[in-house]
Design goal:
- The complex is a heterodimer of chains A (about 130) and B (about 350).
- In chain A, about 40% of the residues lie in helices and about 20% in strands.
- Chain A has about 130 residues and is α/β, with parallel strands linked by helices.
- Chain A has a single domain (about 1-135), classed as 3-Layer(aba) Sandwich (D-Maltodextrin-Binding Protein, domain 2), CATH 3.40.190.10.
- Chain A is globular.
- Chain B has a single domain, classed as Beta Barrel (Porin), CATH 2.40.160.10.
- In chain B, a hairpin with a 2-residue loop joins strand 4 (about 75-90) and strand 5 (about 90-100).
- Chain B is globular.
- Classes of the chains: A alpha/beta (about 130), B mainly beta (about 350).
- The interface of A and B includes residues 41, 49 and 111 of A.
Chain lengths: ~130, ~350
């Protein structure tokens, strides 16, 4: 109950919620989230490959999510990932036009982690939600 | 049809991703009494990544570029073809043809002009840098709080082709770097290739210089890279110190330093300056002896993350030690260059 409250409060404060499938943890540190979403983590501790899910450029929520996660514009985030993948240092994230598509993908993909705006939290199954701690 | 299939995979399971990078350029140059003005079609870079299993992936970079030796004057060239196995955490083993990670430029920009901060590579890429290696690499990245990384590469030497190396000695490269924050990368490396028989190679830069020397040559390169790209400014320094040793002329010590400073204005504009110096020793039997100093100012405008243009004005002074008794910098050349770079 306390954990759920924390998730909710964190989600409201950040305006985004994180969710994942078989990533070996139900809570994650803020530092770890930053490392994961900047391509600095290849594998989860349970051995599953990290699969990052992000809103695509057609998503109306992309800028809101990228501001919260990266503090960068959509263009800068796209540029960052183009460069990192070209270097061969990270696998490309999977980009989605809608939140529902992202949730469906995470549901069927072990190791996947996604992020959407908090107002769409209700479409995420509760067992996939990840709490973020400082 | 192939592209449609790849695109379909890309949109669904994301197993295969295909991208194209390229550039188109205009040059106006003045060298002594000679003046030239021309457009040129740059490298067209087909970049593909694929996930084969959870831990095994493929990366390929095939470039179609100008080749005077062919009837069509353009030919494909495999620049990278590598299989990577992520065996533990952020540690991986790579097998195939890679860009030798001796410095930041060669490790990050490869053939993608879209990512180049300036129009051209540093000068020493033409003479001192072993651009490619076919072999095996051990890589670690983003380790610890300083995001420490390492590369150990063992592979065919700089005089090899993509399918054969006449030498049983393999080249060795060891490098490490750290990224103390999201803007900064600092790295050092050492590369060594002992060639029982010296010959110019396609992997030692793009120079085809042939001194005629066929004896043994020990090629060593020490590199230092410092890069800091923030939202306000960009700084990059690539330094190389090479020692090529032969029985006939002894040690030839070469030096090169590329320095770039850019100031960003409103995210899409960058005004920059370059100072690029290279000195190849008179005693060198692998690269052409000489000195070059290139200074340039430029401007980059980014239409989007997939398209940018650069304008660059350059002055190059050079000395060819075969022509100048004193090796003084005396040959002047001026260039104006415009480059449109794209990737999608």
């Amino acid at each position: 109950m306390a954990a759920l409250w924390m998730v909710s409060q964190w989600g409201m404060a950040q305006s985004v919620v994180y969710f994942g499938n078989d990533i070996g943890m139900s809570s994650i540190s803020n530092d770890k989230v930053q490392r994961v979403f900047t391509g600095k983590e290849t594998l989860w501790k349970n051995g599953k490959t990290v699969v990052i899910c992000l809103p695509g450029t057609k998503s109306p929520k992309a800028q809101e999510v990228f501001t919260k996660v990266y503090n960068k514009s959509v263009k800068e985030v796209q540029k960052f990932w183009l460069s990192l993948v070209f270097q061969g240092r990270a696998k490309s994230p999977v980009f989605f036009d809608t939140e529902q598509e992202m949730v469906d993908y995470v549901k069927r993909t072990p190791g996947a982690i996604g992020v959407i705006t908090a107002d769409k939290k209700s479409i995420v199954p509760s067992n996939l939600l990840i709490s973020v701690n400082n | 049809m192939l592209i449609q299939t790849l695109s379909f995979w890309s949109q669904t399971e994301r197993n295969v991703d295909l991208k194209l990078y390229g550039h188109i350029q205009y040059n106006l140059d003045k060298f002594d009494q000679d003046k030239n003005s021309y457009f040129s079609l740059g490298e067209q870079d087909f970049f593909v990544t694929a996930k084969l299993t959870d831990r095994i992936s493929f990366l390929g970079e095939t470039v179609v570029k100008y080749d005077a030796a062919t009837s069509a004057k353009f030919a494909p060239s495999i620049e990278r073809a590598q299989m990577k196995w992520d065996y533990f955490g952020n540690h991986s083993i790579i097998l195939g043809k890679i860009h030798t990670p001796v410095n930041t430029w060669n490790d990050e920009y490869h053939h993608g002009r879209l990512f180049f901060p300036s129009i051209d590579r540093p000068l020493f890429f033409n003479t001192m840098v072993p651009v490619h290696t076919s072999g095996v690499a051990l890589r670690g990245q983003y380790l610890g709080k300083l995001n420490f990384g390492y590369d150990v590469v063992i592979g065919n030497g700089i005089s090899s082709t993509d399918i054969y190396d006449s030498s049983t000695n393999k080249a060795l490269m060891m490098g490490m770097h750290m990224r103390p924050d999201e803007f900064t990368r600092i790295g050092v490396s050492y590369y060594n290739d002992y060639m029982p028989s010296n010959k110019p190679g396609v992997h030692s830069g793009h120079s085809t210089y042939n001194s005629g020397y066929k004896g043994a040559l020990n090629f060593e390169l020490y590199s230092l890279s410092i890069k800091r790209f923030t939202d306000q400014y960009e700084f990059m320094s690539e330094t190389g110190y090479g020692v090529n040793t032969t029985d006939s002329l002894g040690r030839a010590e070469n030096f090169s330093s590329f320095n770039y400073l850019g100031v960003k204005v409103k995210e899409v504009n960058t005004v920059y300056a370059i100072a690029d110096y290279m000195h190849i020793s008179d005693y060198d039997l692998h690269a052409a002896p000489g000195k070059q100093l290139k200074t340039a100012i430029g401007y980059k405008y980014e239409f989007s993350e997939t398209c940018n243009v650069k304008f660059q004005v350059e002055r190059t002074i050079a000395a060819d030690n075969h022509l100048s008794h004193h090796g003084d910098l005396h040959v002047e050349r001026y260039d104006f260059k415009f480059q449109l770079a794209y990737g999608f």
